[in-house]
Amino acid sequence: MIFKSWKGDLTEVISKLQKVAIGSDPIRVFVLSDRIALGLPRNRHLAGEVLKLYRPMKIQARLLAWCLKWLIKCGFHRVVGKRFQNKATSQITWLRNSTSVGFLGCNPSHGIRCVLLDRDEDGGLRVTKLAMGNHHESVDVEACQLRDLSGNYRGVPRLGGIERGSDWTALWTSYFATPGPCQMEAGAVVPLLTSWLSEEFVQLGSINWLIPVFEQAPIIFSRDLKELVVRRALVHGDFAPWNLRWEGNRLMAVDWERSFEEGIAGLDLGYGMLMQFRLVAGLGGEKLIDTILEKVKTPEMTRYLQKSGWKNPELLFTLVLLYDYSKTGRDVSEELEALRIRLDSQEY
User: Fold this and answer.
1) Which residues pair with 346 in a beta bridge?
2) Tens-place pLDDT, residues 331-347
3) Minimal CA–CA distance to 86: which of 26, 133, 142, 135?
4) Which long-range contacts (CB under 8 A, 24 or more apart) does 28-31 make?
5) Is pLDDT at 348 greater than 70 in this prediction?
6) Which residues is 161 bridged to in the sheet?
7) What is the pLDDT of residue 184?
């Protein structure tokens, strides 16, 4: 099927999810938008934990999440929403004996993708990441990354297992119940990012994966960036607040399909700041740049950037914007112009 939206394709999508993952467990589905849906089981505790998988950043979405939290607390989620149940048996082995299953459904542009939470026979909670149809191989990529990185780097979940079907792939990891910081707080993210630093330094102009970025960059930026020497580092690739959770006092990152070890320091921090203030705060142009550069003046972030080799934050965020443009095609011309003016006014 061509999956376009949770609203329009709900019945067909849930039927597929029941056959592959949910099984015969009754579930109430709340469609939050074309892009997001929540499947809540009857069990109130598990339903509350499923809701925690949803990390809304904007005020309206937070209000909606609060209303759902109230419904769950009162048990009303069992009678509202759209009810689904059939006699299917889960194809995913570890979900067959689950006492209850719920899910968070994500962006339809990537195919049918869900994060499922289930309670096993021993009462423990487990997270399953499932992709069906187009791009389901991305879960294979993430499984390989978790297998290679876990144990070698802080903040990387351990891969519990992986299974594949004809048009789906699923993996499971431990569940981290406590949401991470709502913003890129220096005290939380800097220690984790610092632990990912390598001792090796590299000139940016010699890095193969940056070649397409520099090819699209204005000459003024490309020349200066290519000459910079910064540290190698593990890069998560989607290091944003909604992908961070706590395990006790340890910060953990989830969603590792875009990660790579031959990265450069500062890229994750810059990307996270960009996502926070562009997508959540809705800033753009000069206001976005001014806000980000003011936030990275904290002593913790300044020390991290200097240790990484970034003596000039303006150049780091120039690279972050160019990298984002190379991946998404988003217009960053106003932000680059604001950075150019800043760079012209200083010696570096």
Assistant:
1) none
2) 999 999 999 999 888 75
3) 26
4) 28/77, 28/78, 28/80, 28/81, 28/82, 28/83, 28/84, 29/81, 29/82, 29/83, 29/84, 30/68, 30/77, 30/80, 30/81, 30/82, 31/6, 31/7, 31/82
5) no
6) 172
7) 95
What predicted TM-score, i.e. pTM, was given to this entire model?
A: 0.93
| Residue 63: exposure state from Cβ atoms within 10 A (0-12, 13-18, ≥19) | exposed
Cα 274 to Cα 184: distance, rounded to the nearest angstrom: 10
pLDDT at 301 over 50: yes
Contacts by 145-154, CB closer than 8 A, 24 or more apart: 145/256, 145/257, 145/259, 146/171, 146/173, 146/256, 149/234, 149/256, 149/259, 149/261, 153/195, 153/196, 153/234, 154/192, 154/195, 154/196, 154/250
Write a three-state SS string for 22-47.
HCCCCEEEEECCCCCEEEEECCHHHH
Q: Which of 146, 175, 204 is the last residue of a domain?
A: 175
Q: Tell me: the pLDDT tens digits for 160-202? A: 999 999 889 999 999 999 999 989 999 999 999 999 999 999 9
Token pair belonging to 69: 């939290």
Q: What is the CATH number of the domain that holds 160?
A: 3.30.200.20
Out of 175, 205, 236, pick the residue that ends a domain.
Answer: 175
Residue 141 pLDDT > 50, yes or no?
yes
Residues of the domain holding 59: 6-175
**Structural domain includes residue 156:** yes
Fill in the DSSP letter of residue 278: I
Give domain status of residue 1, yes or no.
Answer: no
pLDDT of 347: 57
